[in-house]
Amino acid sequence: MLVTSPSLSPIALPASLDAFLAGIGPRAFRFAEAGLRQRDDALDAVQDAMERMLGYREHPAEEWTPLFWSILRRRIIDLQRRRSFRLKFWAPQEEQDQDSTLDWADHTAGPAQQHEQQQEYAQLVQALRQLPARQREAFSLRVLQELDVATTAKAMGCSEGSVKTHLSRARDALQKQLEATR
Q1: Which end of the chain is more exposed for a tag (fewer CB within 10 A), N or C?
Q2: What pLDDT shows up at residue 92?
Q3: pLDDT greater than 50 at residue 57
Q4: How confident is the model at residue 3 (pLDDT cuts 50, 70, 90)?
Q5: pTM reported for the whole predicted model
C-alpha cells in the first residue's frame, strides 16, 4: 500500500502489523536503550510497546508509526520514573553511581572500525543523555528514527513548532558537546 507523505513522496506502508513491528524493532530498541541506559530495560520497553500495539491492529496503517512511538515514549518515561523512585529509596549508593556501558557492535565491520564506531556511538549517547528530555526525544525521533515533523509531533504530544524548536536546540547543544570532546 502506498500513501503520499506531506512532502508528496510515496511511502510504502507495511501489509500487516506484524511486518510493521518487525521493521521498527531494531530502531525502537536503540531509541529505548539511549533513553533507559540499560539493555534489559530497553528490551522490556520495546516488547511492552509492541504488545500494546496489537490492540490497534484494526487502525489504519498510516496511524501505526506515530502511535507506536508515542506508546514507546510513554513506556520509557514510566520506566525512568520507576527507576528514579527505586534508586532514591532502596538502592545502595554504589548502584546509584554505577553507569552501565552500552554493548553495541556492528558485526560487519573490522575490529578497528568497530572500535571507532562504538566510541562514536558512546559519545553520541553520552551527549544525548546531557540534553533535556524533550530535546533528546525530538532529536532521536527526527534524526535517528527519521520521522517527519508531523509524526514526531504526534508521538511527543506537542505542536510541530515545538518539535522544530526542541530539535534546533538539541542540535546546537550536541554540536557544542561533541566538538568539545574532539
Answers
A1: C
A2: 53
A3: yes
A4: very low
A5: 0.52
